[in-house]
Amino acid sequence: MEQTSESPQKTFTCQLCGLCSPFTYYGQKPPNTRAIVLLEECFVTKDPFSPDKEKFLVLGSTCSLCSKCVCVGSDCSLFYTKRFCMSCVNKHLDQFPRQIQAELAKKKQSSKAAVS
Amino acid sequence: MDSDRRRDSRSWDWDSPQCRARLDEIFFREQDYIQAGSPEHKEFWAFFDRFQRFKTKRDMAGPGASRGEDSGRTGSGKVDLGLPKDYDARYRINVSVCSRDIEERLGKSEHRSRQRSSGPGSQEVSDCRLALLHFLDFSQRQSFGKLAKLRREQKNLPIFQYRDRLVELVRRHPVVVVAGDTGCGKSTQVPQYLLSAGFTQVACTQPRRIACISLAKRVSFESLNQYGSKVGYQIRFETTRTTATKLLFLTEGLLLRQIQQDRTLAQYQVVIVDEVHERHLHCDFLLGVLRSLLADRPDLRLILMSATINIKLFSNYFSSAPVLQVPGRLFPIQVIYQPIPPEEQPSRSEKMDPRPYLRILQGIDQRYPPEERGDLLLFLSGVAEISTIQEACQIYATHTRRWIVLPLHSTLSLVQQDKVFDIAPPGVRKCIISTNIAETSVTIDGVRFVVDSGKVKEMSFDPKAKMQRLQEFWISRASSEQRKGRAGRTGPGVCYRLYAESDYDAFAPYPVPEIHRVALDSLILQMKSMSLGDPLSFVFIDPPPTASIQTAVTYLKDQGALDNRSELTSIGSLLAQLPVDVVIGKMLVLGSLFNLVEPVLTVAAALSVQSPFLRSSQHNPDCATARQPLHSNQGDPFTLLNTFNAWVEVKGERGGGSRKWCRRRGLEEQRLYEMVNLRRQFKDLLKSHSLLESEDSAPSGGDRGQRRERLTERRKLHQLKRDHEQQEGSKRKVLRLEEGQDGEFSSGSDTEETGRKKKDKEGSGQNMDIQEVKFKLRHNVSRLQEAVSISQDLSSRQQALLKLLLCRGLYPQLALPDEHNTTRKDSEQVFHTKNKQGVVIHPTSVFASDPEVLHVPEDDTGEMGPDRKDSSRHQLLAFVTLLETNRPYLSNCVRVPALQALLLVANSVDTNADCTRLVVDGWLELELREPEEALKVLSTALSLRAEWERLLLAQLGQSSAQGVSRKVMEKLSEGLVRFLLYTEVTYSLRRLAAFQTQNLYVGPQPDSELSRTEAPDLSLLFPGAEAKPDPIKGGLRVTSFFTYNCLADSKDLYSECLRTFWTCPNCGLYMPLTPLERMHHEASCRPAGEQQPDEEPESVKSSSSSASSLTRVYHCDVCNEDLNLTSTEILKHKRQHMYTAK
Ligand SMILES: [Zn+2]
Ligand SMILES: [Zn+2]
């Protein structure tokens, strides 16, 4: 083990759910992605669930409206041509297509059911 | 668009592999993110099919559904998000794929219609690209889902709440105790908290190797590191440690060895000692070492992690270190006391009564519906108990079809052990019958019911009998709670205790720590080599009994590892570095001297691991037949040697076929893999201590093509290993209801079955066994075969020498066959050791089935009286272990010729005046018929031993002469072999009775002129030895192990009647000599050719030029003059004085 202190690990933290994880890259063109381009600036790490290969995993990005750092989990954000955090989505729900509105309503209901 | 499709469908078929291959050339090229042929590629096409089906279904549902008329911008003065009007799922994906190839095909396809017929058109390319985007999105979601779940689980661990508090404590205190029960998450989380708080170079010790591996895997996974980089493990044969490693899981023993090399442990910033409550020998010792190390390393952080057992002890040991208490996460467990009624209590001689256990199974069946899942874990004390209860439960299980009965203990094959993790089919429960291995070492999920017998079998050491003892005890309250806790890991549970609550209250609070139970030889040796001072004054957390330390010191002295002042000898310091028992280490060192390294390495490795012979197949006649050719009636180490050699042979010829070969013979192949690894480690150790020459540096030659081939193979093997690691532990198979029935009893067919199933699980192409892969990566099979072929078909001479080495290594672990064994049944053969009478041979030993080879041949004996049997063929057994279970058993025995072996290895040989009566180590008496023969044997032995000792020291680099020449070594081994095989001396051999040992010695004699004048003479003949009257035994102490004429029946040392005329065959000297004088002469007067003291060239050079190499400077005290004389001349000179003195 070498004793040299590396620069502290950069950590991504979702401002909504608190999910925390080190990231290795921020931007639209993670290394080794070849023909793949991200359509937003993302916090990216190596996919720990496909060990050995160099696969990437997007952890999250910033909300295009409020600039909050949010994870890509469906409880925290939504991508529809741009990234929106869930609070912004709810604020502007009417501008989203019907499909998305329906989906969100359905999810709300099922989570309510699960709680009660 | 529709017409397009129709036209395409004539030439384009999505299901055709050729068409798909065309797209592969565009999307999944060598340089792409996903390559054709990779697992992801396969997944993509599977996804593609699903995606197409979904699209078709949606299209049939009709268009228009995606019309977004209602996404109206109904004003309200809000920001316009600028979202597209029409909904498209594509907009929800945050990735895009574009390459020149794709763009070209999409953009210009209209103009290149000729490609239509042969290749994908723009439509296909675009379809495929869309599918790829959805696939990428899908896999991102999947992986992120796993990550989110992982983080949720981490957050839910009880220890999560204490994260900041822990970091704070560690920052402020050099030592912190973390106490938390099962399931609180301390082992996986604490190291991670420290890493993310900025600590680095963290070592975390574990009592078990397997935990090091699994924790490293888990933590590396949780911290999203690529496996093997920042989080690693290091165990005996394996390490994933690199320069980037920041967190290392390692065994306690290994950390201790690191401290041996790196006194202040400068390589670590934090040391976590996990599971300290288990109180293993190594752990207790490690704590002591760390405690004294803290003074030199004020910056070192030490964290002790423990179950909530006896926490004060640990805290106090480290000057009241702060304790962080973390609640465990156990579900409520109902405790039911069901003491066994007296009539069902097991009596000492009989088997256990299974009724109390069966009642519990019945009770569960009555009370809990089968659809409510939950398995049963039953704790018993030992293997015999397990098989008794297993048999009874199996009958019940077969009858009810609601249980699968599985045994669990460490002597089972690994495949059998592994079954406890498999899943029972619906409506059926597992009934796992286990030793205390399931209390801490093995954790099985899904257990709802625990049955606790309250008993445990524990090893203890009896210093008086020098014997290990496996005895049954009541468990402690702490163990009892631990067992109970196993029922509440995954849900509420029930614990049935087969004892009364009052029994429980009477239990000891904690188990007896190992340091109070076991022999401390290795510990004391290690302490000596770490210069920790007097073991009696070392501050242990719980000091071991003084007697056990003293016994260990005496033992190490007997073994030659410590000298008389309890300092480490050269052999001792080497032994301290070998991670094996002292006796095994000694064998290795001894073997390195002779040309027997290869077989000794194998035997040493074999004796250091569990026996590869499975107990369960012992009664299987097919296995017994198949094993027969491996047996050697020389002793168990030879059987192991044969087995290993044969296995390597099979490995070389058939590779993976060895698995089947092992199964046929009832061998646990895992043990053979362990042996081959250990063997390699021993070899490296010997090399690093220059006890073994390094092999030719040329890496096994071969031309370039062969090298490349080897390289390709290695790459392939590495890939296989990685693949295995990926899929490892992914799926658990479902047990068959019949599983338990065939289990132990017909292991042959059963394991065959398991093998087949395993293959299925591994998938079609990968028939290769992971052990085989690791083996091939680690070892060069052909080189191993070469090494092994040396030890195959040993000549009888080599065999004799090897036996002597084993015997010297194992000494003083010797057993004498009882004189009446010839008249006893095979099963009732009795043996005696110095400290324990009436021991028997373990049924697994070759001598249990073939005891005749130990008997003195009838025709050879000459009866000298009722209890004296004379023969030249007496034998002793050297043994590795003496363990008392229901009887004291010897295991791993080798037979050796008694007289020769004793004279060559014993620490104490006492004789009478004419050397016809020898007493060895104060317990064995040998009487030789002919004084003439007796003298010859003794003097040969003395000179062989002196030479052996000299060469051994030279080999260990202790004498000025560096190394040992091959010629000298061969001469010695020739001499030893001749002595072992061709000594035809008739003698009797018996154990001294207690009353005989009382007045064994003449005791100190009044100072006589004679003995004083004799002294310088002896020192000349045995350099380094101060021959003087023995202050206790009387007689003359000639060497450290040989005392002449001290036995009580001795006659006067120089009485003329003992003097007989004798002619020296070498120098022709003819004069009347006492036995002792003759021995001196013989030892010093070697044939002219041998006399060259070539081992000391310097001393020859420095001596005066006129002196011939045969003479030495001798100072005669009587003449007070320095004389230049040959040995014989010295003897003559002194005899003059002797006569004049009279
Ligand atoms: Zn979030
Ligand atoms: Zn927002």
Automatic annotation (TrEMBL), chain A:
This is Cysteine-rich DPF motif domain-containing protein 1. It comes from the Eukaryota. Pfam families: C6_DPF. Belongs to the CDPF1 family. Residues 12-104 form the Cysteine-rich DPF motif domain. The gene is cdpf1. InterPro entries: CDPF1, CDPF1_dom. It comes from Stegastes partitus.
From TrEMBL, chain B:
Residues 167-327 form the Helicase ATP-binding domain. Residues 58-81, 714-771, 1082-1108 are annotated as: Disordered. InterPro entries: DEAD-box_helicase_OB_fold, DEAD/DEAH_box_helicase_dom, DHX34_Znf-C2H2, HA2_WH, Helicase-assoc_dom, Helicase_ATP-bd, Helicase_C-like, P-loop_NTPase. Residues 363-531 form the Helicase C-terminal domain. Transmembrane segments: none annotated. Keywords: ATP-binding, Helicase, Hydrolase, Nucleotide-binding. One of its GO terms (molecular function) is helicase activity. Signal peptide: none annotated. PROSITE patterns: HELICASE_ATP_BIND_1, HELICASE_CTER. Residues 714-739 have a biased composition (Basic and acidic residues). SMART domains: DEXDc, HA2, HELICc. PANTHER family: ATP-DEPENDENT RNA HELICASE (PTHR18934), ATP-DEPENDENT RNA HELICASE DHX34-RELATED (PTHR18934:SF221). This is ATP-dependent RNA helicase DHX34. The gene is dhx34.
